[in-house]
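Section 5: illustrative case.
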């Protein structure tokens, strides 16, 4: 749905009655990024807001939970994790007819290219150091004090996640791919024992889901919390580290084949060390499992995006098609890791 399809007058009346100080709604712009929950910039007479909504159409039960995004960002307001201020959560009885939330508009930088070509080596090093610091801060949140002790089921995180994404993947294809089925079987057979680690996990932590200060290597907001839950911190860490292995070409925005040392970007091993230093922990065992799981999970997510395109409900159809073509690449990288 484009910004032109939103009922601007009805939405203005609704938001004026639910958000203190909300002024006249002058225009709405749709953000080009994002596939799962479309986001819009609301331009008002006194400033800007961001509206994040469920997509139209039939939805998978465990997907597009805007209410969870709202809850977790609201809970993190007084922690060391930078998040935008939350203003309102709307249930289905609203002008859009679907769940949405309204939050603060952050005026900063979204860095889409992981090689950070527009920056110098020192700036690149600082950006990645900040990424590792913020991820460690997320995993260090006291979930009880933040009111998030019931935000997910503790224990057996990977077992549950493999089950969820296996079901979601199979529900998004007419015929399961044999490589994906082999990967699922390997993950089930190599499931690490539950080590008791439970933390808040973002679920989609990567460079372009963090808003940076306009001029400094400072994170001002972690965005897109739709997949967040209580889980195992290594899932977040491995998910981000996929970027070091993804190809730099083909529109995948990876660091594979990039001369990271020359650019001032840490290697995967160096990034792991940075993160562990922030948290005061040893480097993880079972890294192959965590990496393979992360590729599988992302493949399941993107297959779902492609399925919404096939059903006519994609937020950004052109990008959804590209995501569909990416799924075999992710599966191949996962199989390469487990066969090594």
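Designed sequence:
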């Amino acid at each position: 749905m484009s910004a032109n399809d939103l009922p601007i007058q009805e939405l203005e009346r609704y938001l004026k009655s639910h958000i203190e100080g909300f002024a006249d709604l002058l225009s709405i712009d749709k953000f080009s990024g994002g596939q799962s929950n479309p986001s819009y910039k609301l331009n008002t007479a006194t400033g800007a807001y961001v509206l994040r909504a469920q997509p139209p159409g039939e939805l998978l039960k465990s997907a597009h939970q805007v209410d969870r995004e709202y809850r977790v960002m609201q809970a993190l307001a007084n922690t060391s994790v930078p998040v935008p201020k939350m203003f309102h959560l709307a249930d289905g009885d609203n002008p859009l007819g679907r769940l949405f939330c309204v939050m603060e508009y952050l005026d900063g930088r979204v860095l889409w290219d992981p090689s950070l070509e527009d920056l110098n080596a020192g700036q690149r090093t600082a950006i990645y150091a900040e990424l590792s610091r913020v991820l460690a801060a997320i995993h260090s949140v006291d979930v009880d004090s933040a009111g998030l002790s019931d935000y997910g089921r503790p224990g057996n995180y990977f077992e549950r996640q493999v089950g969820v994404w296996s079901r979601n993947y199979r529900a998004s294809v007419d015929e399961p791919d044999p490589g994906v089925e082999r990967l699922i079987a390997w993950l089930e057979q190599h499931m690490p024992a539950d080590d008791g680690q439970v933390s808040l996990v973002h679920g989609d932590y990567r460079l372009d889901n963090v808003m940076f200060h306009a001029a400094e290597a400072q994170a001002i907001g972690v965005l897109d919390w739709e997949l967040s839950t209580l889980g195992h911190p290594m899932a977040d860490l491995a998910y981000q580290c996929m970027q070091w292995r993804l190809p730099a070409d083909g529109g995948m925005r990876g660091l594979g084949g990039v001369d990271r040392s020359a650019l001032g970007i840490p290697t995967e091993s160096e990034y792991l060390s940075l993160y562990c230093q922030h948290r005061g922990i040893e480097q993880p065992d079972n890294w192959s499992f965590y990496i393979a799981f992360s590729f599988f999970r992302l493949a399941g997510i993107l297959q779902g995006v492609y399925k919404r395109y096939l059903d006519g409900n994609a937020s950004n159809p052109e990008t959804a098609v590209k995501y569909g073509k990416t799924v075999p690449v992710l599966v191949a990288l996962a199989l390469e890791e487990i066969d090594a």
